[in-house]
Amino acid sequence: MDNLKALQESIEKNIILNPKYHDPLVLVKAIRNGLVYGSKVRFPHALVMIFLFRSGTVQEKIKLIYKATRQHATNLAKFALLYKSSMLALKGVNGGKEQSVHSFMAGLFGSYWVFGHGKAGTSSVNQQICIYVFARVVLAFAKLAVQPPGDNSLVGSRYGGHGGKGLLGLNEEQLQRVRQNSWPVFASLSWACVMWLFRWYPETL
C-alpha cells in the first residue's frame, strides 16, 4: 500500500503537476471527458428507445445500443480532441494569449470534421447531437439579446455570467414580463408547431 501511494505521489508530482506535460494532459482529459459524457448521455436513451420501438431479437437490440453509444462517445471524443488541439495551436501562434474568436474557430474546425464531413456527418446520432446543440445556441442568443449588460439574472448567474447584450433595450418592467412568460411561450409554441408538422407534414420530422 505504501509503495502504491508513493507511486501515485510520484506520478502526480513528476507528470500531472509538471507544466511540461500540461498540453498533452489537456488533450488526454478532453478525450476522456468526451468518451464518458457521450456514453452517459447516449446509453440510457438508446436503451429505452431501441427496446421500446425497434423490432428484432435481444441480441440485435444490444448491438444497436452498443453501436449508437460507441458512435456518440467516439464522436464527442474526436471533437474534444480537435477542439482542444486547435485552441492550443491558436493560443501558441498568438503569443500564449487566448482571444474570443479562438473558441469559435476551433469549434468550427472540429465540428466540420466530426459532425459535418462525409456520410458519417449525416448519421442519425450526429443529427440528434447537432439539433440539441442548435437549440441550446438559439436559447442562449435569445437570452443575450434580452438581458442588459451587467445583468446576468438570465444569463448564467449561477456560473458567473457576464450579463447580456441588451439588443432589445427593454426596461425593468419589460424584463420582468420576459422572465415570467418566456419559457411558457417557448414551450407552448414548440409543441404547437411540432404537432402541426406531425399532423400535416410528418415526413419532415
Automatic annotation (TrEMBL):
Domain of life: Eukaryota
One of the record's GO cellular component terms: peroxisomal membrane
InterPro entries recorded: Pmp4 (IPR019531)
Signal peptide: none
Protein name per its UniProtKB record: Peroxisomal membrane protein 4
Lineage of the species this protein comes from: Eukaryota, Fungi, Dikarya, Ascomycota, Pezizomycotina
